[in-house]
Amino acid sequence: MFNSNRPKITLERLKKSAFERFLSIISIFLFVGSVVFLVVMWSELPGQVPAHFGITGEVTRSGSKWELVVLLFVGVGLYWLLHVFEKYPHLHNYPIEITESNAEEAYRISRSLLGYLKNLILILFAIGMINSLIIALGWGEGIGLVLLPLVFLGTGLAIIRALVKLMKVSS
User: Where are the domains of the chain?
Assistant: First the structure.
């Protein structure tokens, strides 16, 4: 699991791109906005709010409004965990052998993927919370079919893209 033979490269050499920094700012802004929305609307929320959605976006289970607070903490916890892992690319799992010659590029790709997934998770948790609030407050039907494809496409395409880039680095 921990391959101590891999080269260690300082994070200064693995700087984030402008897009990565922009995505981080947007994801944090959206998540904080959803938390503020939850706090502001808390007293207006009914005791039961949508807690689970089916594949077509229909509400399949309702739960206490406190479950939204749990959702908030899970989102922050996942974000923090991925943020920490992002800083140690030499410990990541790779489908290629890491050598001195390919380490910097492989680490950059892996760090970038984790950063993207970290921010996507935060955005999806914000959207999920806002979706539950909108339905619970009776303001609309929610986003329905949109969320699931967003999850699969957002994560799947990023992972495939990173794997293709890593394979090019190894050849």
Answer: 18-170
CA-based radius of gyration for the chain: 19
Residue 61: beta bridge partners?
Answer: 52
Q: Determine whether 15 is exposed, middle or buried from the number of CB atoms within 10 Å of its CB (0-12, 13-18, 19+).
A: exposed
Question: Rounded to the nearest 5 degrees, what angle is found at the Cα of 22, between the Cα atoms of 151 and 166?
Answer: 60
**3-state DSSP assignment of residue 62:** strand
What is the Cα–Cα distance from 168 to 147, expressed in whole angstroms? 32
Question: Is residue 68 within 8 Å of 49, Cβ to Cβ?
Answer: yes
127-163 pLDDT, tens digit per residue, is 999 999 999 999 988 787 788 888 899 999 999 999 9
Phi, psi (5° rounding) for residue 58? Answer: -75, 150
- pLDDT tens per residue, range 73-130: 999 999 999 999 998 898 889 999 988 889 889 999 999 999 999 999 999 999 999 9
**pTM of the prediction?**
0.87
- How many CA atoms, within 13 angstroms, populate the side-chain half-sphere of residue 70? 7
CB-count exposure of residue 61 (10 Å: 0-12, 13-18, 19+): exposed
